[in-house]
Amino acid sequence: MRIPKPILTAVIVALASPLGAAFSTPAHSEIQPESNPKVVLTLSTTKQSFVLNEPIVMTVELQNTGNEPIRTLLLETGPMPEDIKLTIEKEGVREEYHDGLFIDLVVMDPLELQPGQRVAVDRSLFYNGRVGKQAFPSLGRYRIEARVYYQTQQPPATGAIEVMVVEPGEKDLALRDRLGSEGELVRLFTVGVTRYCRGSEEARCVQELKDAAFHQPESSYAPTIAWLLASALNWKGLSVEPRENLREQVLNDFIERWPDHALAPGVLASLVQIATRSGNSEKADRLKREFASKYPNRRSVISSFTDTKE
User: Fold this and answer.
1) Which one of 22, 111, 158, 273 has the minimum C-beta count within 10 Å?
2) Alpha-carbon dihedral sign for residues 139, 258, 261, 193
């Protein structure tokens, strides 16, 4: 698949404020009217509080509110520091953010948005590869600001959202301890499963991660561990067989246990990929319809179902 250049620029500002009550409702915010009358940028998360060391998955939705079509690129996977610029500020200290390898969401293709149409993509924020530490390393309230350049020589669409980072709960601590330590949890989320399991008995490491995720499904860390495991099994870096069967099992278990998690769109899209690769066109078509019904604004992903060549 041709990989387009993403053009999302975001600024994360960590506000120095006392830790208040944890939010239980999804975070949702739109740009101020003066930003750009032709496009509306909405940032949202499926919840407003995240436990310490939990990746923050944010949905970026762009709507064409003008009278003419616009062409847009939004996000893609992998470390692309020249394309995605982030700045984190806390207590007067500002750090440029470059995201390293983390969660491989489905590649976003260029789209032409007709008047009134929307497109939504997801982005995970966790590790700042520029300074070698987490993006949200301490408790408190964080403000995430984003800027999307949707067309040359046009003012960008901008948006902001606030989230809270709170203390881990009992289930979170239990899963963390199962991995050995907080440092091991952070290392897993930073480098991914392939590098995490390298140098050990890989099959055993994979099974231990699978058990950790699905034996502690109430933990906020569990869905990310499962997704990272499924993502690693998509490549040949792990000496585990049968990889594709295990990957499909992990993805199916994910959908069953966490159907409304922020990572669920990527999981369902991966199941479409597996069905397509195996030649099960009936199942692939059913999953494509399910995806389009649940996530109609993931237009790039829906397009990739027909454009992707295995």
Assistant:
1) 22
2) positive
Q: pLDDT for 201-252, tens place per residue?
A: 899 999 999 999 999 999 999 999 999 999 999 887 787 888 889 999 999 9
Domains in the chain, number: 2
List pLDDT tens digits, range 117-137.
888 878 788 987 777 888 889
Q: Are 240 and 154 in a shared domain? A: no
**DSSP state letters, 284-304:** HHHHHHHHHHH-TT-HHHHHH
Range of the domain at 236: 170-307
Question: Could you give the CA distance from residue 178 to residue 157 in angstroms, rounded to a whole number?
Answer: 43
Decide if 73 is inside a domain: yes
- The pTM of the full predicted model, rounded to 2 decimals, is 0.81
CB 38 within 8 A of CB 161: no
Q: 198: which 2 tokens?
A: 């390298």
Tell whether 151 and 278 lie within a shared domain. no
- Taking alpha carbons only, the member of 27, 61, 11 closest to residue 41 is 61
Token pair in block for residue 165: 């980072």
